[in-house]
Amino acid sequence: MSALFELSSVQAGYGPLTVLHGVSLHIEAGERVCLIGRNGVGKSTTLKTIMGLTDRRAGSLFWNGRDISRSSTVARSRMGIGYVPQTRDIFPSLTVEENLIAGLRNGPASAIARAYELFPRLQERRNNGGAELSGGEQQMLSVARTLLGKPQLLLLDEPLEGLAPIICEELMSAFETLSRDEGVAVLLVEQKVQEALHFAQRAVVLDHGAVVHEGTTSELLADPGIVDRHIAVAQAPAHSDA
Ligand SMILES: Nc1ncnc2c1ncn2[C@@H]1O[C@H](COP(=O)(O)OP(=O)(O)OP(=O)(O)O)[C@@H](O)[C@H]1O
Predict the structure, then answer these.
(1) Which of 40, 61, 89, 206 is most enclosed, with most CB atoms within 10 A?
(2) ipTM rounded to 2 decimals
(3) Structurally, what CATH architecture does the domain formed by 5-230 represent?
């Protein structure tokens, strides 16, 4: 049986710059995978390539075995790939609820109730403007908006960046609930490697635009030397805006 999603020998970048030099990876339905590596090795570029937001030079992408390499970003999103970019994708001038309604398009209003269930803080702040929210609440709103599209695969680009530990825990626990209760597959890019390894079942390590290690997270947690060899992890910034 084919994987839910597969990248096969993909080379991609921006204009003349090639960032990914033949990346292959797969994600099974409901699986949690983390993509880790040093700064600038191409993790965000991998997510953008999955969404069709980079210049792909070679290789193919498959969704349930079907070649989607030439599908538009909108088509990929409609197929069931949800993308939460690093830049918290919300409307600052709209309230939380208006942001959710705008993200609903033609979907059922019950999806908003589900979003509030997953992120009770958003329900408490439903009448607050996007710009008034803390960094953590903005991230929750950005994730909640993506979930309104009912993705089968959720791409998360450094969701914990700049957030206080308590908010990180809240977010990770919501991602776990999603994965466990709704079978949503997750591809998580995260600089907080320990959090990523505890969340995911499998890890893919990227270096210089190529996969240099792939294995279960339990293997990596049991032998931290593997991670140390591949990643000199940039520590989380001292500040937080949660
Ligand atoms: N829009 C862009 N145009 C041109 N080059 C880009 C663009 N976005 C990223 N790059 C370059 O591509 C390379 C890989 O960047 P990418 O953001 O994918 O790395 P990353 O592994 O996600 O790093 P980080 O952990 O710091 O976010 C870097 O050299 C970066 O400067």
Answers:
(1) 206
(2) 0.96
(3) 3-Layer(aba) Sandwich (3.40)
